[in-house]
Design brief:
Two copies of one chain form a homodimer. Chain A has 353 residues and is of the alpha+beta class. Chain A has two domains: 2-20 and 258-351, no CATH class; 23-249, Creatine Kinase, Chain A, domain 2, CATH 3.30.590.10. Chain A contains 13 helices and twelve strands. In chain A, the strands form three sheets. Chain A has an eight-stranded antiparallel sheet, covered by helices on one side. Chain A is globular and about 65 Å long. The termini of chain A are far apart. The A-B interface holds A 261-262, 264-265, 268-269, 271-273, 275-279, 336, 339 and B 261-262, 264-265, 268-269, 271-273, 275-279, 336, 339.
Amino acid sequence: MLVRNAMVTRPRVTAERNVGAIAVSCRVRLARNLVDAPFPDWADESARRRIVDQAASWLAQKAGLSGAHVVPVGELDEATRALLCERHLISHDLADRGAGSGLVVSDDERVSVMINEEDHFRIQVISPGMDLQRAWEVADAIDTRMDQHFHYAFSPKLGYLTACPSNVGTGLRASVMVHLLGLRLTNDLESVLRALERLHLAVRGVGGEGSQAAGHMFQISNQETLGSDESSLIGNLLDVVGDVVHQERNARLRLLRNTPEVLLDCVARALAVIQSARIMESEEALDYLSALRLGVEMQLLRRMTIDEVESLVLNIQPGHLQKRLGQVLEAPRRDIVRADFMREMLAKVALRA
Amino acid sequence: MLVRNAMVTRPRVTAERNVGAIAVSCRVRLARNLVDAPFPDWADESARRRIVDQAASWLAQKAGLSGAHVVPVGELDEATRALLCERHLISHDLADRGAGSGLVVSDDERVSVMINEEDHFRIQVISPGMDLQRAWEVADAIDTRMDQHFHYAFSPKLGYLTACPSNVGTGLRASVMVHLLGLRLTNDLESVLRALERLHLAVRGVGGEGSQAAGHMFQISNQETLGSDESSLIGNLLDVVGDVVHQERNARLRLLRNTPEVLLDCVARALAVIQSARIMESEEALDYLSALRLGVEMQLLRRMTIDEVESLVLNIQPGHLQKRLGQVLEAPRRDIVRADFMREMLAKVALRA
C-alpha cells in the first residue's frame, strides 16, 4: 500500500484555467577555480588580469557560448556595470571588483562566464520557465570543455574547491525564479516561505543574496553543494518548486473564485498609479509591474503582454534608464524620468471591461 | 529699537496666489455642570435620564439654537451613533454611554449641546474657517441663557467646575482644524507639530482626543482652561494657528515653485487610485481625499469643488455609508461599497491639462 500510495502522483497543474507561468526563469551556476592560481580575493591585480587575459578570449571562442563576446567589467563605467547587474549577467560583487574582472556572454545573454568574481569562473546558464534540466546540460557541456582546457582545482574527496566553503563539492547552485503575488494576496506567502526555509532551501529576491524580493519575485535555490550529485540536487529543487508553483496556482484560482475584487483591486490600482504618477522609485515600480504581470496572466488587461512587462522590468531600473538617456542622473531625477517613461509606455493599457 | 521691532507685523498671508483656506473650520466648546446633581460618571441611569428629560426640550426651545431638535442618543442604533460621531455632533465617549445621554442640535448642525457626556452639558459651536470669535460669541450667548435657567456648578475661585480637572476654570476648549498636506509634502510637518507641542497646544486628529490625523487634518486647541480669560485663550490660539497657516501656505507656494512634480504626483496618484480601487478603507480614503482637497485648492483638478470633497469626507465613513444603504455591513464589505461609491462619485474628475 505504501508503495502504491507513493506512486500516486498529484497533478501539479490545475487545468481549470490558465493562470500564468509562475516559474519565470531558472538558472544553473557552476563555481570553478584554477589549481595553479590563488583565489581572486587572495590574488593581486596583475595575477587577476593574467587570468582574464588568458581565459576570456578562449572562453568566447572555444567554450561553446554561441556568438559570445568579452566584456571588460573592470573597465566599465558605473552605469554600464549597473546595467549588467540588472540583466543578471554579473553579480553586484563582480560589479564592485574593479580591475582584473571580466565577463564572457553569449549573444542571447542566456549563457555567461564571470571571471574573477569570488571564484575564478562562474558559469551561468539561464532558461525560461522551469527547464533546469536544459540549463544544467548546457552548463555541464561548457564545464566539460573548460575542464579539458584548464586545470581545475579538484579534490577526489571533496569535489570542486571554491573560495567559499559553502560552494565546495559540486560548485552548483540551481535556482528558479517564481512570481508569488497570488500567495501574497491570499495572505499565505509567509507560511510558504517559512516552509521553504525548513526544507533548507534558500529564498532570495531577484538581485540574489541579501536582496529584497521586489516585485514579489523569489529565487528559490539549493543551499547545499556537498554530498549530493548534480542530478539529485536539481531533481529535489524541481520537486519543491513544483509544489510552490502548485500553491501559487491554487491561490490565484481561489482569488478568482472567492475574492475577485482583491485581484482586480491590486491590478487596477497598479495600472492607475503607473499611468498617473509623476515620481516613481524602482522598488515601487517593480511592485506595480508585478501586479500587471499577474493582470496579464489572469486576462484582466488589454493591450499588454508578458514580454512588455519583462522589458519594462529591465528598462525602468537605474542602469537601463541612464543608458537609454545617455546620461548619469541623480536618484530624484531618475524617479521623475522613470515615472514619465512608464506613463508613456503604458498609456494605452486598459482593464478588460 | 526693541519696541519698534516688536511692532513690525509680519504679513500672515502671502498674496502671490490663492492656495486654499488651510484653516477648514473652528470650534468652541464649553463644559458646564449642574450644581445639584452628581457628574454623569457618578450618577445612576435614572439620575442621568432626569437631567436629559428636564434639560433637552428646554435647550431645544429656549437656549437659542435655531431650529433645534432633540436626539435621544442613548436609544439610537450603532450606525446612527457612528454617523453622529462622523459629523462631529457627538463624541465617541457620548456614543458609547447608552441610556441617559442626549443631544440637542440646531438645524444647520453648527450649534449643539451634548447632555451627560463627561459633563452635564457640552455646548459646541462650529464656524467655517478661523472665525473663532463668532463661534465664541454664539456659545457665550447660549451659555448666558443656560446660566439664567440652570444652576451651574461654579466656584468664585476656580471658575466652572467640571468632571475632569483639565477643564476646570473657563471650561473652554477652542480649536481650529487645519489641513497640512503641503507641510507633509515638503517634509516640514514634524517640526511644525513639535513646535506646537512646545507652545503647550494640543494637536489631534479629526476625531478628537487620541485619534490619528487621517487626511492630514489637525485640530489645534488650547490645553489650559485655568488662569486665562476666554478672550485671551482664543486670541493666543488664533495667533499660533495664523502662524501655522502661514507656514502651510509657504509650503504650498514652495511646492509650486520648486517641486511641482511632488504636488502633481500626490494629486494625480490620489485621483487615479480613487478612480480605480475596488477595495478602500476609510483612513486611506481620507488621505486620498486630502490630496484631492489640495488639488482643488491649487487649481490642479477639473470638475471638482471643495464642497464635493467635504461631502465625500462625510459620506465615505462607515456610519454614513451604512445609513445611505440602509443596512449594516461588515468592514470588508464596506470597503468594497466605499470603493464603488468613490469611483462613481469621482468618475468625471480629471487633472487639468
